[in-house]
Design a protein that fits this description.
Number of helices: 28
Keywords: Carboxypeptidase, Cell shape, Cell wall biogenesis/degradation, Glycosyltransferase, Hydrolase, Membrane, Multifunctional enzyme, Peptidoglycan synthesis, Protease, Transferase, Transmembrane, Transmembrane helix
Radius of gyration: 38 Å
Number of strands: 21
Largest sheet: 5 strands, mixed
Pathway: Cell wall biogenesis; peptidoglycan biosynthesis
Strand order of the largest sheet: 2-1-6-14-15
InterPro entries: Beta-lactam/transpept-like, Glyco_trans_51, Glycosyltr_51/Transpeptidase, Lysozyme-like_dom_sf, PBP_transglycosylase, PCN-bd_Tpept
Shape: elongated
Family: In the N-terminal section; belongs to the glycosyltransferase 51 family. In the C-terminal section; belongs to the transpeptidase family.
Distance between the termini: 74 Å
EC number: 2.4.99.28
Helix content: 40-55%
């Protein structure tokens, strides 16, 4: 038979056992030696059952608490301010020194009332025993024997500390033995006051509270040092069965148990009968005014000012430092969130989403029994064939019918009747029901996203993930909502195209803000035989148009022609670098030009941040560093951030050109709505609206901040309603947020402008070429030096009237407003305006018909 291997320790023990046995039986006093050996082995067995060598090394953990971690954000003064807490159980550590002595004549013991209440009920002889109260054990044995049940416990406060810190709650002789052993060790290592302090901070007191500090704040909204005798007695009454004796769950049982606490105080000489009756009577007001849900917990009381931010950072930290350390380590987490930015983001977006929910008026599907009625029998057959799970609802049809009828009909009648009867409890219940209902009459909530990033540092300063953080709405949409960006993608495409032209100049294919493109209908025959015919939002076309004007008016046909002229393969590397997609690639087809593939708001905002950074990638960060409870940095995310190289994806010149073009979008184009709230600085951005008005975007920046705003339904096929474009919905929210968030920050210029090499030339507004003597409608335009047009405009007269302009040297410029001339642009007589088509209900700012 295969034998289990014997280790070195086992071999040594066997040899030692033989030697000891031999000595016992070889001497003259064999009987005495046998008795001593039995006693020694008995003591050894008891030690092995109740104790361990490891216990001596664990004693230091007794004074270490699991403390909630705190998340900090920056206020207007540049100081860190708590914005959230992370914990599973609430604990507020209390030092015994904080509990000042009582200035009363109740007894000779002038300790704080909280200490006296707990000593009287749990261990009145705490300061006289050595960890185990033998008299208490004997008394409890007699009481329980006479009662025929466990009526009185015999654990001292020291034993309870040993159990709370090191043991489980199972009831067994072995556990009680270990409890006693550990209590003796604790008494040897710690002074009495320290053991009592640990006990007051470790005792569970119900509703998710651990310790008297957290319980005091939860039950009474007070600090523990400010409690009255009655309130201290309530806390002391919760040590055995917190749920049963909770004043919130069972007020009557609680009052009876508090009476027992006062009786103990009287029996132990800490209070007189008259004083106890007076303090007990003073509790009547507390119980009378107690109006809280039995389901209330300390978790709902935790500091959490910005729910979406808290949840996003929580998920990231669990991956990097672990959940146990996050919830119990007392960490200090310093984030990049700016409190003013976050507050203004929620003030701007959340009310707009609520208004849009009513405006869009999309109702949830309510005939949920239709499937069962129409296809229930067929489903049974399919389920048998393919081993599918049973089709069933979580709640019955009767419950659904009643819930719907109550919300729409019965509740209003109840409310009207209650106005006549005046029942306060019913009135409060109905008011709470109305206030907690997030959508009316089964309206689907319009969701949204707002995320703001500093372009130079990558700091995320604000984050809103939807219409409201609830148990049924916890999606963090800036990172989890994959939606088509529509025309909001055009600046990225145009920047990449102009960058390619600057690096590979070709007079026939150069793309510049003054390049002339045909704005006319397009139609493509796809490989599968389908036709793709992208259209403009208005279904109207302008003939030939400069690229700057095409972006301002969000011309879809021009975007397709830009991609066709440059070639998608020539732009793919730049597009990938700007978007930095993880685990997926950009589709290789022309519909990319219209933003037909899905991005998250975060990815799109990061790409715009690269434009605002002069063509350099931006690596967003939300947490800077994490400190432990002693102030030591345990995780520095800034080092990880600095180790990631910021790559120059496109040239500063291309970033400058697209920035100047987006300035026109804000001031004269589809993004004029951002100016509604008095933004006192230059802004650059682009609207976006996808097919059938399913998504509404505005993404833009100032030198200080890059922000995106998105509106839409979680179900991507549902329309926001006719005319609900990015310019109408998202642009005003963006403008309000930026105006309020940056209100106290000084305006500044882009730091990379001094390195930009741009040529400014006068061109013909009609052709985008160098003007001749016949050109009267001119504009000042910016060019990458290699892409300056060389052709002279001859669209206004014969060739001999051409006057060439003197070449100008490259100069460094900042984005400025392009001034319009009063002179109207002549149209070629051969060009004819296509007939106006009837606007379709299903058309959007970017018609992506594929």
């Amino acid at each position: 038979m295969k034998q289990e291997p014997v280790g070195l320790f086992e071999k040594y023990f066997i040899i030692w056992f033989r030697i000891v046995t031999e000595r016992i039986w070889t001497g003259d006093k064999k009987f005495r030696n046998t008795i001593v050996a039995i006693l020694l082995f008995g003591i050894l067995n008891v030690f092995l059952l109740t104790g361990s060598v490891k216990d001596f090394f664990r004693l230091g953990e007794a004074a270490v608490y699991d403390i909630p971690s705190t998340l900090y954000g920056l206020n207007d003064k540049g100081e860190y301010e708590p914005i959230a807490e992370y914990y599973k159980f609430s604990r507020i550590p209390v030092k015994l020194e904080q509990l000042k002595p009582e200035d009363t004549n109740y007894s000779t013991d002038n300790r704080h009332k909280v200490i006296q209440c707990f000593l009287s009920t749990e261990d009145n002889s705490f300061y006289s025993h050595n960890g185990i109260d033998l008299k208490g054990i004997a008394r409890a044995f007699v009481v329980n024997l006479m009662a025929g049940r466990v009526k009185e416990g015999a654990s001292t406060i020291t034993q309870q500390v040993a159990r709370l810190k090191f043991l489980s709650i199972e009831r067994s002789i072995a556990r009680k033995a270990r409890e006693a052993w550990l209590a003796i060790l604790l008494e040897l290592v710690y002074p009495k006051d320290k053991i009592l302090e640990v006990y007051l901070n470790e005792i569970p007191l119900g509703h998710g509270t651990i310790g008297v500090g957290a319980a005091s704040r939860f039950y009474f909204r007070k600090e523990v040092q400010d409690l009255s005798w009655g309130e201290a007695a309530i806390l002391a009454s919760l040590t055995t069965r917190p749920t049963q004796f909770s004043p919130i769950v069972n007020p009557v049982s609680s009052m009876n148990k508090v009476r027992v606490v006062f009786r103990k105080l009287v029996e132990n000489g800490r209070m007189t009968v008259a004083d106890a009756e007076k303090e007990y009577a003073a509790l009547e007001e507390y119980y009378t005014n107690l109006n809280r849900s039995p389901n209330d917990s300390a978790f709902s009381d935790r500091l959490n000012r910005f729910h979406y931010v808290t949840e996003y950072i929580r998920k990231n930290l669990i991956r990097s430092i672990g959940s146990s350390r996050l919830y119990n380590g007392g960490l200090k987490i310093y984030s990049t969130i700016q409190i003013r930015h976050q507050e203004e983001a929620e003030k701007a977006l959340l009310p707009a989403l609520q208004r849009q929910t009513i405006e869009s008026n999309q109702r949830a599907f309510r005939n949920i029994d239709a499937f069962d009625d129409l296809y229930g029998s067929g489903y049974s057959l399919i389920a048998d064939l393919y081993d599918l799970p049973e089709f069933k609802f979580k709640i019955s049809k009767i419950e659904r019918t009643f819930s719907s009828a109550y919300q729409e009909d019965i509740r209003d009648e109840f409310y009207a009747l209650n106005l006549l009867t005046g029942d306060d409890f019913l009135g409060d219940t109905l008011d709470k029901n109305y206030s907690t209902q997030n959508t009316k009459d089964h309206l689907l909530p319009v969701e949204g996203s707002l995320i703001a990033i500093r372009p130079e540092t990558g700091y995320i300063t604000a984050l809103v993930g939807g219409s409201g953080f609830r148990s049924d709405n916890q999606q963090i949409r800036p990172f989890q909502a994959f939606r088509q960006p529509g025309s909001a993608f055009k600046p990225i495409l145009y920047a990449a195209a102009m960058d390619h032209s600057g690096k590979n100049p070709d007079p026939e294919k150069n793309v510049t803000p003054a390049t002339l493109f045909a704005d006319s209908p397009l139609q493509y025959l796809m490989e599968d035989g389908d036709e793709w015919a992208p259209e403009n939002y208005s279904s109207e076309y302008s003939g030939f148009i400069l690229l700057r004007k095409a972006l301002e008016q969000s011309k879809n046909s021009v975007a397709v022609r830009v991609l066709e002229q440059v070639g998608l393969s020539n732009l793919m590397e730049s597009l990938r670098g700007l978007l930095q997609l993880q685990g997926r690639d950009i589709p290789y087809n022309f519909s990319v030009s219209l933003g037909s593939f899905e991005l998250t708001p975060y990815e799109l905002t990061r790409a715009y941040a690269a434009l605002a950074s002069g063509g350099k990638t931006v690596n967003p960060i939300s947490v800077l560093y994490v400190e432990d409870n002693a102030g030591k940095v345990i995780k520095d995310f800034r080092k990880d951030y600095e180790d990631v190289e910021r790559k120059q994806i496109i040239s500063k010149e291309a970033a400058f050109l697209i920035t100047s073009m987006m300035k026109d979008v804000v001031e004269e184009g589809t993004g004029r709505g951002v100016l509604s709230y008095g933004l006192n600085r230059k802004a650059y951005g682009k609207t976006g609206t996808t097919n059938n008005f399913r998504d509404a975007w505005f993404v833009g920046y100032t030198p200080e901040l890059v922000t995106s705003v998105w509106f839409g339904y979680d179900v991507g096929t549902i329309s926001l309603g006719r005319g609900m474009t990015g310019g109408k919905l998202s642009a005003p929210v963006w403008g309000r947020f930026m105006a309020r968030a940056l209100e106290k920050e000084p305006a500044k210029e882009f730091p990379w402008l001094s390195d930009v090499k741009i040529t400014k030339r006068t061109v013909c507004r009609m052709s985008g070429k160098l003007p001749s003597g016949q050109c009267h409608d001119l504009l000042e335009e910016y060019f990458i030096p290699q892409t300056v047009p060389k052709d002279v405009c001859n669209d206004h007269g014969s060739a001999w009237n051409v006057v060439e302009s003197k070449p100008q040297s490259p100069v460094t410029q900042k984005p400025v407003e392009t001034k319009k001339q009063d002179t109207k642009v002549e149209k070629k007589p051969t060009e004819s305006k296509p007939p106006k088509r009837k606007k379709s209900v299903f058309s959007g700012d970017e018609e992506i018909d594929y």
